[in-house]
Amino acid sequence: MRKIGALIFPGFELLDLFGPMEMFGLLPEQFELELIAETTGAVVSGQTLAAHATHDLNATPDFDILFVPGGRGTRAEVHNTKLLDWIRRASDQAEFTLSVCTGSALLARSGVLNGRQATTNKLAFDWVAQQGPKVDWVHSARWVEDGPFITSSGVSAGMDMALGAIALMHGDETAEKVAGWGEYIWNKDRHDDPFAK
Amino acid sequence: MRKIGALIFPGFELLDLFGPMEMFGLLPEQFELELIAETTGAVVSGQTLAAHATHDLNATPDFDILFVPGGRGTRAEVHNTKLLDWIRRASDQAEFTLSVCTGSALLARSGVLNGRQATTNKLAFDWVAQQGPKVDWVHSARWVEDGPFITSSGVSAGMDMALGAIALMHGDETAEKVAGWGEYIWNKDRHDDPFAK
Question: CA–CA separation, B133 vs B122, rounded Å?
Fold first, then answer.
């Protein structure tokens, strides 16, 4: 059983978060999910609907997997040192650190991606790359795995990445089963990125 | 501008709701999103994470689009006459009524799908069909359009349906643009259902 801590902030992208959470959530024996934010309670997404955080940043980050979504809110959060400090501590003690879309801008700013390969979404690629000049940014990839870091392209690529992470931890067959339960057509080749063209 | 009312309940399926909400939410000039539940505040999904409802069933249902996700919670809600009454009223005055996965069980039970074609997910197909003996259930379809009713197959099919609904309301080009922004590989042929085999 792995505990996933998903960090949210005002202006997070709905599907960045809930696409992967659905995939992990379909394996309740394997993954426990928690939402963390600077303050607990309703956190409003970039699409106006709100998720409900049950943990704040004062809780000791004891997650096996740190998960960071993107969204327009990252534009402000790259300057939030309290959040970046928490990301660094949570990532340091986690087995895996995952991000979707511009979530990798927050990982990059916290320094944990230095010397690592990572990706992000296409529409904000240059801005994200500027947040981590020491990161080896990969432009064409549905998602990128480098040691404990798994980063995905924009929004929907997070679901493909989540299934990739499940495959890494529990085997391909389990990931295929989860995709089937969710009637999800898994784009399982992480090097095949139709949006890079 | 169309107002979408998404009805949630304990045990709703995360991606049933937030996949489509992402797609509609990427067009904030065209769609306004609201979450409704029996009581406002945190509503816990089948995957344990909670969404935050801002309206309860006492509010007059004045939505242009009624949206109903599925999830294991539907097993209890098919017996919730207060909820079913609200669905009937909201659907009667809406321009479109959409459901994902077992959300169509709630629509069927409320009676609004009688005489209509509709679909649902594969794993609960027989149970859902029993909730609406007068509904013309379609087994193989990514989603089904019948007049104001647009119903989708399991979980992830909701995203394809949402893009289909956007295409219906704003044209194919707009739907393709939204898919591109979300780096989503749209399965746009609603008759091509790989999970029906």
Answer: 17
Closest CA–CA distance from residue B4 to any residue of chain A (Å): 11
Residue type, A25: G
Neighbours of B147 (CB within 10 A): 10
Tokens of A114: 């230095």
pTM attached to this predicted model: 0.96
pLDDT at residue B61 tops 90? no
Q: What CATH homologous superfamily does B2-196 map to?
A: Class I glutamine amidotransferase (GATase) domain (3.40.50.880)
Three-class SS of residue A97? strand
Torsion angle, alpha carbons of B8, B13, B16, B18, to 10: 70
pLDDT tens per residue, range B140-157: 999 999 999 999 999 999
| Strand-pair category, A50-53 with A136-137 | unpaired
Could you tell me the two tokens for B57? Answer: 């069933």
Asked if B18 and A181 come within 8 Å (Cβ–Cβ), the reply is no
CA distance A113 to chain B (A): 23
DSSP B76-125: HHTT-HHHHHHHHHHHHH-SEEEE-TTHHHHHHHHTTTTTSEE---STTH
Q: pLDDT (tens digit, 9 = 90+) per residue, A37-78?
A: 999 999 999 999 999 999 999 977 889 999 999 999 999 999
Collect all residues with Cβ–Cβ distance below 8 Å to A135 and sequence separation of at least 6: A104, A108, A113, A114, A115, A116, A117, A118, A129
Q: Which pLDDT does position A65 carry in this prediction? A: 98
Q: Which residues pair with A33 in a beta bridge?
A: A4
Parse chain B into domains and list their residue ranges.
2-196
Closest by CA to B134, choosing from B149, B112, B150, is B112
- The model's pLDDT over A129-158, given as tens digits with 9 standing for 90+, comes to 999 999 999 999 999 999 999 999 999 999
Phi-psi region of B14 (alpha: psi -120 to 50; beta: other; left: phi over 0): alpha
Q: Is the pLDDT of residue A197 over 90?
A: no
Q: What are B163's two structure tokens?
A: 């893009």
C-beta atoms of B52 and A33 within 8 A:
no
The pLDDT of B105-133, averaged and rounded, is 96
